[in-house]
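Box S2. Input/output pair 1.
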Amino acid sequence: VTSTITDISQLHASEYDVRYTGTDFTVTRLSDQSQITSNMPVTIDGLQFDLSGTPATGDTFRVSPVRRAAATIQSELTNAESVAFSSPLRSSSNVANSSEAIVSAPQVLDINNAAVRNAIDIRFNSNTSYDIVDANSGTVLSAALTYTPNTPISYNGWQVDISGAPRTGDEFSILANTTAQGNNGNGLAIAALQTSSVMTGDATFNESYSAMVSRVGGQTRSLQTRSAALDNMRIDAIERQQSVSGVNLDEEAVNLTRYEQAYQASAQIIATADTLFQTVLSAVSR
């Protein structure tokens, strides 16, 4: 079983167990033990799980999609001038427009769309409808589309917003930013990531980092407390063991003093007995 990242914003800092039941697969997210039962391939948490080969009933596979994520982070750019802050597309309003409506900088949704850089005109044929027109040939590509205020207009892998109230005859152009005119669209999009919920779908980078630091700090403190408690238990066990089978130096010193006194008393008795014996021998020999 392998995994491929399909949506980084949905990733979880977790490993997964994939178990084959004989008819389908049970995918368990180990961080919270949540389970999903499905056939392969299946997409979960921004990951697509794929199977190769034929599993046997009861086979379990451990999938670790983000285990080495931090170790593989590296700098791709070392020159700030290499950062493309301008959007690959730019927009403009026709100077002949009769309204004060303004078109936003294009937001690229699919850079791999083959037609994303095609020059397009958004031409209003009434206050509430518009045509999509090929800016080079004048061919109408999509006609009489309904305009909904405050709703983005999407086409060819991009989208724009039109603020204000466009009128009949107003025209807005979307074209490739070949001259790199400074609309800093990419720069603004990068800056917006700071406050966007891109981590697990509901947290910003700062919120996710703060949560990680808090979690690691809490676990570290818990382990330190447990280590101190275990060390105290070790010291107590050593003291208990020594109280039963070890040598107490103070007690042994007292015993040595007692033995010394006993030896001195015995020596005095022997000396006295020797003196008496010598006296008896002297008396007999006379």
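Box S3. Input/output pair 2.
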Amino acid sequence: MDPGSTLRLRRVTGLAAVAWAIAAIGYSVSILFVAPDDLALPLRCSVAGTRALVEWSTPEAQNAGVQRGDRILSIDGIPMSSVLREGVGFLEPGSANRYAIEKPDGRVLVVDLAPAPASFHRRPGQTLLHVALLCVAALYLGAGGVVWWSRHERADAWAFMLFCSMMAADVASSPRLDLAPWSFPRVLANLPLLGASAFHLFSSYPIEPNWIVRHRRIRALPYLAALVLVPLVLFAGAFGDAGAAVVYESAFFFGTGLAVASLAIPLMERRRAYDAGIGARTDIMILAATLSLLPA
């Protein structure tokens, strides 16, 4: 590819990544303005991978035996992954829904619970945490933008921009996955892109491994896999509940696994980096990368 085409490719993909991150931040901001009298699930859940776990619940749910750490399997027979994808528009005032809850020992508890007002989920500090995560997302996007703008001709600046954009989208989308439709699949769709951009960045900076120098096209393979997984995740509902579960699990383990495995690249190149006089820079990169991937 000639230099002009390379710069155009970087510009298009960089702008697409920025747009993806801005959309995630904007959508997350909109969740802050959900009316307090809107209906919500009587179970405040967090999503660990593809599992919805109870954080807290209404007194009615507690009296029925629901506890922190229980896994929500389904609501009215609809798998929780589908509920997280489609939202809670099926909730009606004064009408109870049937919840299947898996206890830590494997027992399944079936309970009928009435919806809760959205204000029930707004515990002290939750909104502050949400805003703080939005600020972190904006910092990621800003840092990536500044580096890319000032060094747009460098390949590692492009890789840094892509990684920061995916991190911004991930951090911004993480609050209240159970409240807004499509938040859950967007997070899962972002993970393969995050993994691919992590591999891209950590194989580019601060030192490029010899095996990458010999075969630079290897960097494209994770992106190709991500381009397959992203639409599959976004349209997983077309594959039925069982098929959607497989797609979600695949995207989750591919993205997180690749991101974590990519940390091994600067670790393996640490000796070469010290020999080249950039050992301290490499150590800082390893520490920063490890801290960055903790929220993912």
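Caption for Box S3: The chain has two domains: 3-29+124-293, 39-121. The longest strand covers residues 51-57.
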